[in-house]
Amino acid sequence: EDSYEILDNHPINRRRKDEGKMPANMLWFWGESHPPEIPSFVAKYGIPGAVIAAVDLIKGLGRMVGLRVIDVPGATGYIDTNYLGKGQYAAAALDRYDFVWVHVEAPDEAGHESDIDKKIEAIQECDEKVLGTILSGIKQRGYDVRILLMPDHPTPIATGSHSSEKVPFILFDSRKHERNILPFDERAVHETKTVVEDATELMPMLLETISD
């Protein structure tokens, strides 16, 4: 209400009204709060880390726990994002950081649009240009790594909205040679014997602070 009293009679809004336009005469704050007190990533896990993302929410989460935010040219958070660049920057970041979080928004956006062709394209691009480039870079550098690959939630084509169904994940260790693994798809969620009910256990599993 106070913002209305101040803005409604502002010269810009008076001019907009004279021109038959809607005035911008009220401020609505969304999600206002104070930063939660969360220990930094290095304090909790003892290693430095970085995050690569185009989505502000992910960047903010990274900054909140002290991860270095790495900006990739051409990263858009959409189907036209720079997949190859994300893979290249992630592989290079491992020269400096022991942990790198790579987020790709494109499959989620395709799900919201209920566009199956775009979703298939986004997943294929992630597989080839993000994951493939990271694996190639790791091989060139001779690093031993563990990779956790997973979506943060489903966004089914049928609904175009987020759902709360369980999601599949892959935990890869370059020092091990696994055989007979399940396909990485939604059906695997119901077929696997490895079920993690508490998502907070995934990071310790990845970093080997608890057994996987």
Describe the structure.
The protein has 212 residues and is mainly alpha-helical. The protein folds into two domains: 1-32, no CATH class; 33-206, Alkaline Phosphatase, subunit A, CATH 3.40.720.10. 39% of the residues lie in helices and 9% in strands. The protein is built from nine helices and five strands; from the N terminus they run αααβαβαβααββαα. The chain has helices at 2-7, 11-18, 41-45, 56-64, 83-93, 106-112, 116-141, 186-191, 202-206, and strands at residues 49-52, 68-70, 99-102, 146-149, 170-173. Strands 2-1-3 form a three-stranded parallel β-sheet, sandwiched between helices. Strands 4-5 form a two-stranded antiparallel sheet. The longest helix is centred in the middle third of the chain and has 26 residues, at 116-141. It is globular. The N and C termini lie far apart (55 Å).
Give the SSE map.
Layout: H1 2-7, H2 11-18, H3 41-45, E1 49-52, H4 56-64, E2 68-70, H5 83-93, E3 99-102, H6 106-112, H7 116-141, E4 146-149, E5 170-173, H8 186-191, H9 202-206
Parallel strand pairs: 1-2, 1-3
Antiparallel strand pairs: 4-5
